[in-house]
Write a structure and sequence with these properties.
The protein is mainly α. The protein is 72% helix and 0% strand. It has 3 helices and no strands. It is elongated. The relative contact order is 0.09.
């Protein structure tokens, strides 16, 4: 089976997207630092970023045209 994207390319993309999203969220969090209750938010930021990335992946999968899926099963 010919692949449009390799597992390595996919892994690299996910890693890049996650790190980019984490950096953006950290920067937004630093702007709101005065409103936070504590200084160590790393774990919270990591969990929030994971949830955001997985939410994006789920939405993309849900939006796949069903005819594309049907072609695989024909």
């Amino acid at each position: 089976m010919e692949k449009d994207i390799s597992y390595e390319e996919f892994t690299s993309f996910v890693e890049t997207f996650y790190l980019q999203s984490l950096k953006e969220l950290k920067e937004m969090d630093e702007q709101d630092m005065d409103e936070r209750c504590c200084d160590n938010e790393r774990e919270g930021l990591e969990i929030n970023t994971q949830e955001n990335v997985m939410g994006n992946v789920n939405m993309i999968i849900e939006d796949i045209d069903k005819s594309k899926i049907d072609k695989i099963f024909k």
